[in-house]
Specification:
The protein is an alpha+beta fold and 239 residues long. The protein has helices spanning 25-29, 32-47, 55-71, 76-88, 100-112, 118-129, 141-151, 169-176, 204-224, and strands at 177-185, 190-197, 228-233, 236-237. Strands 1-2-3-4 form a 4-stranded mixed β-sheet. The protein is globular, with a radius of gyration of 20 Å.
Amino acid sequence: MPVEPVPTHPAPTPAGPRDRATVTLEDVQGSEELSLYIASADRVMEAMGYTEHGFRHANLVASIAYQVLSRLDFTEREATLASVAGYLHDVGNSLARDAHGQTGAILVYQSLRDAVHGSDLMPILAAIANHEETEGVAVSPISAAVILADKSDVHRSRVRRSGRIELDVHDRVNHAVERSFLSVDSGPRTVSLELTIDTDISKVMEYFEIFLGRMQLCRHAAELLDARFRLVINGAELA
């Protein structure tokens, strides 16, 4: 019996859930499972004494990440995927703080693997897994945008009512920040974190003591976007 030759190009498989269009921010915002992860993550962070990590933070990071790539002329698809990754970046905190980027990526994979095409899902997972300065690095424009958006959310609104600003330097620094704004200028391609800090509550040096690694990560993220990172505190450019 003659042997049939193996086709050089296998026939395409029928379209299924993995072949759907680009996932959107609205898709993940409407997921009960992912909403449960975010709510759980915030409760775990509260129990551990950390600042707010709930829906306010998730939605803000999603919005800023989208704007960063849009204003630096990246594609709409990349900006959309950055917003999705930004919204989901902290879900791993629902399990534990340590390595929460990596555990979060696994949770998101389990949740979205049957609904999102791999070409969209993989850059989302990589951005989630690499958003912390202790364990990650900007690996793509999507990842860089999430890093810049996440690290720019420093503000007194993140301090919980149970916060002890006289004892905890993270609470004290966040409580001292009266205004935080990430400005993206497409002309000179600069990304500027502009902070107004009440130095009667926390000295500027305390900000650097706890956030130096984050600012270095932001600088590298901006460089990947072919941009320059600026840190401006109380009107003075410090980096």
